[in-house]
């Protein structure tokens, strides 16, 4: 009787919740409700979304059945092993997850064996990325039965229930917009049930979450500025796994960068799936709104031109003004969102790095059209010409896909010739991997044989390396500013490595160097700026003679 009376207020509370909240996620032992995918969300109104988002943080109907209350969401010191796969965006997402779990009483462990919970931040971009994760899940399952295992991120969104069926050891599945719900999902899993939330949101940017950095000692940090992608390139699964584009309000980003500057961070990389289409349309920023559309003339989009709000130009201007000694980079952009004003700002601002990632994907018009990239080879090359006319020294990097649907040998040759013409300092090259749900998987035929894809992939890699070597050789005898990142290299414990403004890795011996500011001498540390003279080059790295320790401001003023 006593137990019944004690349970009564909880039960009443749960019933109230049942009336006031929409069900956001469920345990799979009842009606499997994994939330709704992108298609549904496109149709839903913003108002409904706001309601759903609120509902997500209110304990759901499923909890009332297991009598879980917010106190049950506390980790009570349980240890979590965080495992991150895929891109920088995933590293950044894991920092958000860590922040949320630490705030809920969880602790971190480096050891899989000692962990109570293992969380995998996953990637779906190519089949190979998912295969790695299936293998890891199998390994975890055969090693232990007692741990709670969670699959987070893109693969959770894409494969959903299949994960629970195929990898029987998985207890929690949480999509990229469901991390706030993790304490509850883990609590449900603690009762022996599976818990899943793959609901996508039109608004979630984790705006107010202070990420817990993976390496707090590092002098480089990543700051997430937007999520999702509206471009719908035909080959790409990202719009389906990460949902619609939305930008984090500028004030939160500026606060985070200020905090990092106070902590002594010397390099911030702004992150987003489509970073330069940043557009803060939050109500609080509306009074600052300046811009109309910011797409490069001639480039097409699948969506109606976006207007209003604060664009990437404003953000970049404000972020780079916070700390003139802090280098600013950004990734990954789309070529359509590089108005000349952004390029001019990069030239003016000493601390915005002279490196641009401008993914081409292909150098052939028919393939670009089939990919839905919204530009031709000529438009792309015009953009590169315009960029170089303002930033003659700029280091350009790109992404390319080998063997996309319908790619002929001639089309492949066009891509090789584009690579030679642009001469990138680095390229990511990938063999095409067909992904379910994408427009290419529904409308096009994956008709380039695997061995031809591999062959073309290798040819792309060879040609980009030739270009990178030529680019790097031009650096020989030049003076460059290097920001030191790491002490010791694979070959020499007494060496240090860092990067030029253009993002090229430079390696040299660590020796006491005089400071240009006060003449004092000491050995180098991460976060030091060093003036060097480049002495040698491979396609991947530069070697150099260090001259002096300096500051970004001093180096730049002498260059001008
Ligand atoms: N197959 C191969 N590469 C892909 N990318 C995206 N989707 C696919 C796919 N299905 C590449 C693109 C993109 C990068 C992040 O990954 O080059 O720019
Ligand atoms: Fe994928 Fe294209 Fe969006 Fe990049 S821009 S995430 S390739 S859809």
TrEMBL record:
GO terms for biological process: regulation of macromolecule metabolic process; regulation of primary metabolic process. GO terms for molecular function: 4 iron, 4 sulfur cluster binding; metal ion binding; tRNA-2-methylthio-N(6)-dimethylallyladenosine(37) synthase activity. Transmembrane segments: none annotated. Residues 78-191 form the MTTase N-terminal domain. Residues 215-470 form the Radical SAM core domain. InterPro entries: Elp3/MiaA/NifB-like_rSAM, Methylthiotransferase, Methylthiotransferase_CS, Methylthiotransferase_N, Methylthiotransferase_N_sf, MiaB_methiolase, rSAM, rSAM_horseshoe. The keyword Zinc-finger does not apply. Its cofactor is [4Fe-4S] cluster. GO terms for cellular component: cytosol; mitochondrion. Residues 473-548 form the TRAM domain. NCBIfam families: MiaB/RimO family radical SAM methylthiotransferase (TIGR00089). Belongs to the methylthiotransferase family. MiaB subfamily. This is CDK5RAP1-like protein. It comes from Steinernema glaseri.
